[in-house]
Amino acid sequence: MTDHAVLTLEHIGLRIGGARILQDVSLQVPAGEMLGVIGPNGAGKTTLFNVISGVIRPTEGTVHLDGRDVTAEPIHRRAAAGLGRTFQTSSLFPALTVLENVRLTAQAHAGHATSVFHTPRRSDAATATASAALAEVGLADRADTVASGLAHGQKRKLEIAMLIAMDPKVILLDEPMAGVGSGDVPAITEVIRGLHRGGRTVLMVEHHMEVVLGLVDRVAVMHHGELLAVDTPEAVMANPTVQSAYLGESV
Ligand SMILES: Nc1ncnc2c1ncn2[C@@H]1O[C@H](COP(=O)(O)OP(=O)(O)OP(=O)(O)O)[C@@H](O)[C@H]1O
Description:
Layout: E1 5-16, E2 19-30, E3 34-38, H1 45-53, E4 60-65, E5 68-69, H2 75-80, E6 83-85, H3 98-110, H4 124-137, H5 152-164, E7 170-174, H6 185-197, E8 201-205, H7 209-215, E9 218-223, E10 226-231, H8 233-238, H9 240-250
Parallel strand pairs: 3-8, 3-9, 6-7, 7-8
Antiparallel strand pairs: 1-2, 1-4, 4-5, 9-10
């Protein structure tokens, strides 16, 4: 493990029943990198995110976050240690306003008690953090809108703002373009690019190949639960093993 790797996977394996879902996945993600994770359906991308975020414990191997072994730690401990994640399905509180949604995560990060059953406590610091996160994703003018009233693309931006407010060391984006209309893709791409420009470390599973290749520093290619290659977009596109296993049929 190098000193500057903020996320390190070593020899991750996962067996469920008789099935081998992940096999010998090793990966180092330096601080500030944006890494795309691609691969055909069923390749193991979401499962890998589940292993990183603590939803699933691997049967082999280790996960280190910022040098600390979190392999045995539950989801909330990893989140507290700086792992932020969006899911393929929305994780918003639909009855709260846009600002209240972000303020909840800002308060949670600051260590305040939060409950969805109470009006979020007024806190100047949390409100300032939330407002800054909304400005970063371009939703400042929707702060008082009830979240359920947002268009789909705006909900995706709100989810990213909720992550930003937690100031995570590593951000996992699970298919940020899923369900997003083609008209919203450029704006959300810019929000993700902004995460990177801000120096954040981002891993992104995404099927939208143009988005991935245009955004990331490196691409990790998964196939049948294994990492086929981890390299620059250009090198991955030119890799014959990747082409025959995946890109040849999809790009
Ligand atoms: N809990 C489970 N029990 C059994 N098999 C599972 C389980 N979770 C995932 N799998 C299998 O593991 C493989 C990898 O699934 P995963 O969802 O991680 O792939 P993916 O690359 O994210 O696919 P997609 O692009 O379709 O989202 C699939 O064959 C899936 O059926």
